[in-house]
Amino acid sequence: MCRLATTFLTQKQAFSYLHRNRTAFERMARAQLASGELDDGIVVLTMLEAE
To answer: Which of 1, 18, 21 shows the shortest CA–CA distance to 10?
Structure first.
């Protein structure tokens, strides 16, 4: 399971960003899982809006 926090104001903006960067998020999630960086068994990622 993966939890993704975001600073985007709308769900549409967040989904659009996630879709464009899906491969990068998948790599980060796999790396955290492999290293054991879990929060109660959940991979936690943060999606920050690019400036």
So the answer is: 18
* Residue pointed to by tokens 């690019």: 50
Question: Is the pTM value of this prediction over 0.70?
Answer: no
- CA–CA dist 46, 27 (Å, integer): 13
Question: How is the chain split into domains, by residue range?
Answer: 2-47
| Residue 33 near residue 43 (C-beta atoms within 8 A) | yes
DSSP 3-state of 33:
helix
Q: Is 29 left (phi over 0), alpha (psi -120 to 50) or beta?
A: alpha
Residues present in the chain in total = 51
List pLDDT tens digits, range 3-32.
878 888 898 998 898 899 889 888 988 998
